Amino acid sequence: MTNIAVTTWSLEQTAPTDLLPAAAPEGDVRIVRAEVPSPEFSRFLYASVGGDIRWTDRLGWSHARWREHLERPGVETWVAHDRGTPAGYVELTPGDDGVVEIEYFGLIPAFRGRRIGGHLLSCGTARAWDLAERWPGLATTKRVWLHTCSKDGEYAMDNYQRRGFRLFDTKVEEEADVATPGPWPGAFPS
């Protein structure tokens, strides 16, 4: 198996006023919280959004592991719908001392390039900043962060920076060059 160099950039906001919201796209696009933890739905979103950009770290998770993660206090999944169809999602994961990670964010390929991503990121980031209001016992959010890498979409970094995220770390590491998994086995040619 061959290796590839992957650059990972970590970005952050340190105040709610850092958020620079995108305009809402035209049409019937809605952002809704998936309030019932559903391993099946979350795995569908993960595989459908990340299948063409080599998201593989959660593909081996069991149903129980998905449920355990989704039932942690403060973990939220916000889903963009275009005319009722899931188009993408943002997953928020709280850490210690008021730090919230946008652990996953992205759109299903058919919905990219339609101005939904900036709107979804804006809404998801705003929900990270007010997370403690929905989860008694969580610390007030003091920092929201995320990471992107050279395997992600070509407009990912630009979208994050346009929403007010600032770069705070860059790492380059060798990773195994894995096949694109697709949303189901064999969905994309090798």
Provide tags for this entry.
alpha+beta, seven-stranded mixed sheet, 5 helices, 24% helix, globular
| CATH fold descriptor | Aminopeptidase
**pLDDT < 50 stretches:** none
CATH architecture classification name: 3-Layer(aba) Sandwich
**Highest-level CATH class:** Alpha Beta
Radius of gyration, in Å, reads 16 Å
Structural class: alpha+beta
Oligomer: single chain
What topology, given as strand order, has the largest sheet?
Answer: 2-3-4-5-6-1-7
Report the β-strand fraction as a percent range: 25-35%
According to DSSP, the number of beta strands is 7
Order of helices and strands: EEHHEEEHHEHE
Could you walk me through the main structural features you see in this protein, from its secondary elements to its overall organization?
With 190 residues, the protein is α+β, with helices and mostly antiparallel strands. It has one domain: Gcn5-related N-acetyltransferase (GNAT) (Aminopeptidase), CATH 3.40.630. Helices cover 24% and strands 32% of the residues. It contains five helices and seven strands; from the N terminus they run ββααβββααβαβ. The chain has a seven-stranded mixed beta sheet, sandwiched between helices. β3 and β4 (85-94) form a beta hairpin. α1 packs across α2 (63-70). The longest helix has 14 residues, at 116-129. The mean pLDDT is 93. This is GNAT family N-acetyltransferase. InterPro entries: Acyl_CoA_acyltransferase, GNAT_dom. GO terms for molecular function: acyltransferase activity, transferring groups other than amino-acyl groups. Keywords: Acyltransferase, Transferase. Residues 29-190 form the N-acetyltransferase domain.
